[in-house]
Queue: 4 jobs
Job 1
Amino acid sequence: MKRLISILITLMMTSCIIFATAGLVCAQSNPDRVVDGAGILSQAEHDWLEEDIAEWCEANQFDIVIVTCYNNMSEEQLMQFADDYYDYKGYGYGDNLDGCILVVDMGSRTTWISTSGYGIDVLTDYGISKMTDRICDYLADEDYYSAFDMCYFERVQELYEMAEAGEPYDVPGPKVGEAGFYATILGIGFFPGLIIAAIMTRVQKSKHKTIRRKTEAQSYVVPGSLTLTRRHDRFMYSHVSRTEKPKDNDGGGRGGSTTHRSSSGRVHGGGGGHF
């Protein structure tokens, strides 16, 4: 009898473990893409976003996630939180976990977008900067749904389509190394300099204009009226040209996304803002 009871208990425990493991796998494969921990969306708004985002993500195999919280974190802490939340909650498609996540901390009024896999190519530093500017404007006006739907979800779709077409949204202008780049730099430096030089030449020329041209200075001196007792050189005019030193760009240049590693060791891009 005791052996039978022991066998039944063992079977029950094994069943519980199997069901718990299955539930965990299911939760990891289908995590919520809209997690409104701060409670700033209505239930209807939450459901609309969740449904639309899930449908698009499944069709394109690219994850888009929204998380709100009230943790009062710094930007550095929020970056780490966003990276880890994405990594450990089972988001992302494919081997590289393609996708992106927007985290909004209502406590510190800070936002951070973390990108992963193909998301690093889709959302460049420049694209993230422009996106977060608009998101923060709407968050500051307490139009939370529009910030998430129009400024984030719809914009990510647009950037995804641009990347798929081979032209990720990035800093305008030709890339370094392209012929157009050097032509642009030459034009910027040469033509304004030519115009300034012409103006300065005319100004200096007008200061030294005489009534009649003479070939020698002696023509202007009355014989015997000038005796030089001291002689020295005097520098009359000077012109100093200053050129601003190029600023270092931490990867936000043409075609660029700065990256870092999260606590899991995975590579992420991203950027944030304040509202």
Job 2
Amino acid sequence: MMQIVRLFLGIVSAFFVLYMMGYSSFLFLSVVVGSSTLYGERRREGVRRALLPERRVPVSIIVPAHNEQLTVTDTVASLLALNYRDYEIIVVDDGSEDDTSAVLIRSLGMHPIRRPISKRLDCGREELIYETMAAGVPVTLIRKEKGGKADALNMGINCARHPYFLCMDADSVLQSDSLEKIVRPVLEEEHVVAVGGVVRPCNGAIREDGHLRAAGLPRNVLCAMQVLEYDRSFLAARILFDKFNGSLIISGAFGLFHKETVIAAGGYDRDTMGEDMELIVKLHEFCKSARRPYRVRYASDAVCWTQVPETLRDLCRQRRRWHIGLLQTMWRHRALLTNPQYGPVSFVSCLYFWLYELLSPVIELVGLLSTLLAWRVGLLNVPFMLLLFAVYTLFGVILTITAFFARIYTAEQTLSPGDLLRAVLLCVLEVVVLRTVLALQRMGAMLGYRRGKNQWGAIRRRQMVRG
């Protein structure tokens, strides 16, 4: 019996060590590539502006909203202040129970209209349509029956007049040059069907004349740790995947899409909690099967600010929803993992998301339990294991700090000495504590998964402070 236990623990330990080494190597490569890309883009910024001085792509900005009365006017105000020409704003109120529509109508002085909408994508029934011109920009508000975020997005696409549409959340704010920067890949390269931007937490920031001014790290410790987490995530894997057209996700808070390609692929799926990732994977499948040349790009300098959960309960609820959406998408498109037709999308991107995103809570829990079992039966080299975990943790902390300071430098932001010290200390807390808590939450999401309708994820919002 003891021989069987030894063999089992040996196999599990070897796999777990290789797993940690593989993830650390991938993260190291991602941060190095991401940092060098950011520094290179900063040096080339003047050249890019000179080459594309006046060219524009007409864009429809779609803002799905549900119970967002505290934030929707700030979001629209930031959109009206964009340094861009030839765009429209479409707000889709998906059956809100609060005054989301009323505050927007009152704020912009909107008036009701009768406008037929061609339902090229299936979506719920519209109830009221309002329009106005604000700061020279057409603004449309569609109040519809509740159907979920994906349903609201499909309604917005049906209503969009322009060849490209941009999706963003109703609790988010764009920088004045964000639309100009996220459109650049479309102008620089042919066959671009989707472009993702950077999402950063805005909790604690101040809004001035439709613009957002960051005020250092949020005072809330949980929000500050999410700043570090977001910087590592958006700097690392997304830039690396962009190098070989392997992106599998564009954040639902900030993404640009070619309208006709999305419609041809079937639009947003209303039966998943991860409609943003589901659409990107669907675009890969559609373009490959139709033999269409295509590119899914990432604009590392286009920034969208969004509110993140301020309580652990809301954060766990959000991450549970994200992980269920990941599970639904990866299982539905599991054939991609073994299909050589997709090249790096299959054996790099899909493999990464299966091993280091979807199954990581299970693998890490099994590794922890096997370590405890080995200790219990006296088969564990305690000093070696403690050293291994310490090195692994230190490595993660260093990469998180590197990603954070690379973003600060390339974005030309300044932090107080106190915030710099807090960032370093919170990197340790984020890697050791927050990631462990969220891993347990993701495990619970997989074990307690129940298929359900695509509903809105509700977290508590705050109205932005005005300067």
Job 3
Amino acid sequence: MEKILDRFLRYTAVDTQSDEDSESQPSTAKQLNLLRMLRDELEAMGVDATLDEYGYVMASIPSNTDKKVPAIGFIAHVDTSPDASGENIKPQIIRNYDGGPIDLAGVPGLKLDPAEFPEMLHFTGQTLITTDGTTLLGADDKAGVAEIMDAVQYIQAHPEFKHGPIRIGFTPDEEIGRGVVKFDVPRFGADYAYTMDGGEIGELEFENFNAASAKIHIQGRNVHPGYAKGKMKNAILIAQELNSLLPALARPEHTEGYEGFFHIVSFQGTVEEASIAYIIRDHDKPLFEARKKMMEKVVGEINARYGEAAATLDLRDQYYNMREQVEPHYEVVEMAVKAMEAEGIKPKIQPIRGGTDGANLSFKGLPCPNIFAGGLNFHGKMEFVPLESMEAASKVILRILSLFEGA
């Protein structure tokens, strides 16, 4: 029986960063390295598993009970965020964490400090897995992958464990909003599913942001600066001006809970031309639509000032709030609550300030709440995950299956 820590470290060693500028599916071929590994590991455990042309691993474990039990799926994504490098990850294992700052050995002077991240103190005495400060860790969502595989390993090794039909899914490209675009829900065959893609232990989510991306191209006009008066249009400054027209307090660093935001995620520019990329988020659908209208208005104002083609906007919806799809099947949330409580975990039902594959799956007809995977500070070098949280998540998977079987 492979330990969950060893499994997690083995998965994080595989670079699976996705690429939002790629049009292929999956967006990067290197994601297939881990997807093939997972398919092969499932088959080695005696589980029927496939990997299709789009990068979806689907596996099925038949029911071993005489009861009529819904087919329950568990899903995690293999890709890591484009926001930070996922190559050559060097995890640090901090056993019996003492509550103090943790040196990130790859960058002299860089620390993971509870003075800045007080949630670290929730895990004193536990084993923390951190980065070395040069990359992200990949707990989003390789912790979820490891937890599902750990549960499968237990199920296959313990035929006395009673359960209904089980479906397992591993997906690419979740981090760029395309994780389940071509996911075949009928072929997957689950009645309900859970993504193991949440944060701190106890988190349970069935509502998320409505999401859109906005890419803006600014066309300037470069003229020799000595003769530029009345002629030059500096695309860098125009882009800066455009950003200043958006409300400053509607940025991620000023929002929480159900509050939405505009988040500038990249900028490239010269005097001649520039490009800006934003993500737009809000839990409330009317407010989400209003934010998109505001972005269109701001682009219109720039064009009114600098010429009709000064700014061009590519605005695309990415995913929607799954609450309206999950709430009519609230029993799937209640089962997760009962499973956590049975494992001595206090459930924390809250909105996701982000998105998961479960949002799009719910709109495809598969109600799919999100359960904690245990990691914190995703998408950057301060990411970490407590080992005990991963172990707990694997137990919650098994408990959910037991509860559905016993219902």
Job 4
Amino acid sequence: MTEELFRQDGYASEFESIVTAVDGDWVTLEGTFFYPGGGGQVCDTGSIGGVKVTETRHSGEDIQHKVPGHEFVVGDKVWCSVDWDRRYDLMKGHTAEHILFNSLQRQVPELGIVKIFISPESKYVIVDRDISLEAIGAAVDFANSVIDDNLPVTRSMMDRDDPEMERVRVHLERIEGDEISVVEIGDVDIAACSGIHVMETSEVGALFVDRKVSAGKDGVAIHFRIGEDARKAANQLANTCLRVIEELGSKPEDVVHTAANMKAELETSKALLKKAASAILDAQVPEDVNGVNVYQTIVPADDRKVVSDAAEKRKAEGAVCIYVFGPGSALIASGDKRVDCRTILSETAQELGGRGGGKPDFAQGGFPDADPEKVIAAMRAHVEAALK
């Protein structure tokens, strides 16, 4: 059983230990300060005996260290080094996550946490419902006040049946064993957690939310930055916003309203364009090619459904249609078996530099660098050849 020294001191990064087991690249030590990951925090890396440790993991009651290319044997006394800069970033990030979620929950009390992920490259918390940017902004303000107040961060072990567990943010059904690791941040937050944290909130430096994205069925992922990285991200985003304000010719306090108006106007324009495209396709007069109606046109819209619906309608009538629409998209459909749409699209793509596919009666593709008129002319020539 590996002694979990990291529980005693999260700030220790240099230590001596003894190799107790070897399994290929995996080395087990008598005691270790390498954190094997947990609570959403990724594992530590570093070196053992000067050889790089690329991964650390739990294996039953032991903790294994992946040390590719090592030559250790059981009984070796080794000097170990945890990558301190990486570890400290993870400690600060994990503490920041506790502060951020607590701050978000103060804005939306019914908010639930689904998952957290803390790595050097990415830090986020997934919550079970959407939350407005206004609420996130207020939460970030509160989180930074907690950081500035330099509150103590303490860890203790509590019994599962302890009445005090009622005030702990915890999912007891997800935790095994009777003793539970609890992390408390001043009088602001208390939560069950197996990760490693800093001792004082000021060590986090600063917190900034830079993205809110869908996490699918899980909810919404709120990505955040800490310390100097947070300041840089905030400055970059502020500069981007200033450039947008300048492009819109708006005042900073009016930019959201201006953008909302532009979005509404764009949606209206798209709806009108869609309606116009449908009218054009419905009113189009076909040409007779050896007894078969052939429709061809460049559609002034980028609505694939409108074009596809019109094509299916013409195909059902036994006609052939060639439509070019949007930025370089093309479609061919045929109700006449002599016209192989898949072959025609493929041959046209070879001629004009495009790609696509489909079925003999319906095919579509993209011609980003070709003149729409040339695409239609090429397909029309293949159709006429097929109908001779």
